[in-house]
């Protein structure tokens, strides 16, 4: 794996963001994980095994697909899609779970836990565990179990146990709380496969590095297919793993504009969106200091998005760092605009994106118009939309 | 000398260990919080930890997390907790320690939070999810107001880190009796070895919590440690009818586990 000179520093900080805001019980496990990860990155055998799995099992490299009819509709820059929807299990999540499962095996930990919101990370974790013969328990909020029942069944088919979380708001943040609680009592034999670039150090770094395969492939494909770097890259941001994965290898390419798209929900009013970088403030949630949505007293705010995968009040600390440094521009797209883009990509290109991804598609349509026709815009097509067709049908009927 | 230092010193002079019950503020109501604190003093407590309800308490088990969610649903804010402590302060000589998530402290602002907590009558802070690598600021703020500042040492904490954590503490060190979460257990925890490791690096009193529910647990942990912390068992008791009476009864019973320290033990710890 390519070593990176980028942050975090030794204490897990991206500028002032990041850190390890967790009960002391977890520190030893985080230290163990960081040390094992450092060893693995220097071990050519780990790199070979991971690369082999990404190629033969996940199906990488995923294509960079030109979208001519979407380009025509937008009227501006050429639009290309980085096709993470074609990775095994239908989203980028598998890049991270395969890598972390390999780390778990190296640490001798045979039991895996994970949180999931929409179920994509849960499915990708259950998949990796089945591949390596690891015991798998997934925590999922009761509200998400209701919204994403198909993925619950998929996880069970893959041999995982799904623990339904009834606490708090019964969504992703509460599932994350329960997974962290499980880990505090099980750190000796259990690895927690966190699903995004969030949580305490070293998770934001490890997940970014494992997802950076997206950006590395994309960079090489751009040079080959368009003869240069794109003018702009667009990705949706919930916790921010697909965005971090495609952005990181371009972070030093000053000519490439990077745009992260949060869930604008119904409105910018408190409780009606899930856009901490646009409307939140720095604070602590789930083990790191980053932008969060909280009330004035530090209690986590209610959030809303039509997309369960973006329905999260926090965001990875490296995004907070990129936001404040100005390297990445963050904006938001409403439920309605995302739903429209969901349909547009299907009609114009024959690709049904995940509702999460549809937020990035909507922003891409807007941005392409601002660029010249000899420029290129790449959008990370982070997942496929099969899981969302029922929810989309329900929302469109109401629309 | 802060009130927490005075309390531990007085208990040592009396040859007795210390009982530190934990309550979740606003559970079941703020009225109960104000009434129960003096009652705990009567029952034999010397220091009370007052938990600030937080929406995402990852260190707490189901009982305390449930109490926090109930209090939040009833609209309890950190400001209400401070007001309750301010109201009860004149009625008690107990040490009052705030148990509060760093999420709340960061939102309010560390300087303002410490000032308001000290002004309300708190004698110390425990921040269970604080990043130890960034604890210096809060520790200095607490020191400037002569507040105790306790960080956690876990069963999994490596030896070289224990000294670093203990050096950041003032007033006392909070030793977790077990991995896992706050919650009730049947068997008494084995902490003597961990207490001995801590004694080698700090002169501060050592308070042991997590999973202590019965007088014999209190007796076992205070054979080596200076204080026993009781949380979930008390919070669960206070979920029923007559929470103040039930809390008084439980803490009175737990206080029976506070046995006089042996003379040799006493002399080595003064």
Notes on the protein architecture:
The complex is a heterodimer of chains A (399) and B (270). Chain A has 399 residues and is an alpha/beta fold. Chain A has helices at residues 27-41, 44-58, 68-74, 93-106, 120-132, 142-147, 149-157, 172-186, 203-211, 213-225, 241-247, 276-279, 317-325, 335-349, 355-368, 389-398, and strands at residues 13-14, 17-18, 64-66, 78-83, 111-116, 135-141, 161-165, 190-192, 232-236, 257-265, 281-285, 288-292, 328-334, 376-381. Chain A is 44% helix and 18% strand. In chain A, strand 9, helix 11 (241-247) and strand 10 (257-265) form a beta-alpha-beta unit. The longest helix of chain A has 15 residues, at 27-41. Mean pLDDT of chain A is 95; it is low at 1-5. Chain B is α/β, with parallel strands linked by helices and 270 residues long. Chain B has 13 helices and nine strands. The longest helix of chain B has 14 residues, at 30-43. The radius of gyration of chain B is 17 Å and the shape is globular. The two termini of chain B are 15 Å apart. The A-B interface holds A 11-12, 19-25, 27-29, 31, 167-168, 173-174, 177, 180-181, 184-185, 187-188, 282-287, 289, 294, 296-300 and B 54-59, 61-62, 65-66, 69, 72, 77-79, 101-108, 128-134, 151-158, 161, 165, 176, 179-181.
């Amino acid at each position: 794996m390519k070593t990176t000179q980028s942050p975090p520093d030794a204490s897990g900080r991206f500028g002032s963001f990041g850190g390890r805001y967790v009960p002391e019980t977890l520190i030893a496990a985080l230290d163990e994980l960081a040390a094992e990860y450092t060893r693995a990155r220097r071990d050519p055998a780990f790199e070979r095994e991971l690369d082999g799995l990404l190629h033969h099992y996940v199906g990488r490299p995923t294509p960079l697909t030109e979208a001519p009819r979407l380009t025509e509709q937008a009227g501006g820059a050429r639009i290309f899609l980085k096709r993470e929807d074609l990775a095994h299990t239908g989203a980028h999540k598998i890049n991270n779970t395969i890598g972390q499962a390999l780390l778990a095996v190296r640490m001798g930990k045979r039991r895996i836990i994970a949180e999931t919101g929409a179920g994509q990370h849960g499915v990708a974790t259950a998949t990796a565990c089945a591949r390596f013969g690891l015991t798998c328990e997934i925590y999922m909020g009761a509200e998400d179990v209701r919204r994403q029942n198909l993925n619950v069944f998929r996880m069970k088919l893959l041999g995982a146990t799904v623990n339904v979380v009834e606490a708090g708001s019964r969504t992703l943040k509460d599932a994350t709380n329960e997974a962290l609680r499980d880990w505090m009592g099980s750190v000796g034999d259990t690895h927690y496969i966190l699903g995004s670039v969030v949580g305490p150090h070293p998770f934001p770094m490890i997940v970014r590095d494992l997802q950076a395969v997206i950006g590395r492939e994309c960079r090489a494909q751009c040079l080959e297919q368009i003869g240069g770097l794109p003018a702009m890259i667009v990705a949706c941001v919930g916790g921010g793993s697909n965005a971090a994965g495609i952005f990181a290898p371009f972070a030093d390419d000053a000519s490439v504009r990077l745009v992260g798209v949060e869930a604008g929900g119904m409105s910018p009013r408190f409780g009606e969106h899930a856009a901490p970088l646009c409307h939140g403030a720095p604070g602590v949630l789930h083990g790191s200091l980053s932008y969060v949505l909280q009330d004035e007293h530090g209690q986590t705010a209610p959030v809303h998005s039509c997309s369960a995968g973006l329905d999260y009040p926090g965001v990875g600390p490296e995004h907070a760092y990129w936001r404040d440094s100005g390297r990445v521009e963050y904006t938001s797209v409403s439920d309605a605009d995302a739903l429209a883009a969901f349909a547009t990509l299907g009609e114009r290109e024959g690709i049904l994106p995940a509702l999460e991804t549809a937020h990035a598609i909507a922003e891409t349509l807007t941005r392409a118009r601002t660029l010249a026709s000899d420029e290129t815009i790449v959008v990370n097509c982070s997942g496929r939309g099969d899981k969302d067709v029922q929810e989309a049908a329900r929302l469109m009927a109401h629309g | 000398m802060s009130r927490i230092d005075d309390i531990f010193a007085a208990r040592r002079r009396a040859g007795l260990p210390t009982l530190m019950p934990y309550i979740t503020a606003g559970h079941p109501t703020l009225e109960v919080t104000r009434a129960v604190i003096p009652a705990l003093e009567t029952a034999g407590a010397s220091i009370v930890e007052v938990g600030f309800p937080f929406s995402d308490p990852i260190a707490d088990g189901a009982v305390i997390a449930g109490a926090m969610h109930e209090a939040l649903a009833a609209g309890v804010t950190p400001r209400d907790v401070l007001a309750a402590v301010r109201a009860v302060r004149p009625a008690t000589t107990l040490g009052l320690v705030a148990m509060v998530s760093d999420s709340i402290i960061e939102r309010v602002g560390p300087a303002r939070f410490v000032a308001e907590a000290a002004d309300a009558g708190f004698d110390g802070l425990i921040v269970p999810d604080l990043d130890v690598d960034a604890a210096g600021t809060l520790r200095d703020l607490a020191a400037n107001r002569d507040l105790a500042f306790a960080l956690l040492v876990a069963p999994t904490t490596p030896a070289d880190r224990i000294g670093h954590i203990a050096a950041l503490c003032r007033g006392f060190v909070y030793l977790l009796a077990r991995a896992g979460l706050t919650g009730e257990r049947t068997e008494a925890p084995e902490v003597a070895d961990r207490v001995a490791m801590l004694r080698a690096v700090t002169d501060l009193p050592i308070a042991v919590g997590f999973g202590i529910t019965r007088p014999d647990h209190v007796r076992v942990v205070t054979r080596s440690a200076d204080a026993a912390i009781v949380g979930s068992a008390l919070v669960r008791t206070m979920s029923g009818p007559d929470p103040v009476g039930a809390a008084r009864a439980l803490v009175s019973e737990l206080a029976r586990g506070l046995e006089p320290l042996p003379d040799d033990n006493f002399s080595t710890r003064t």
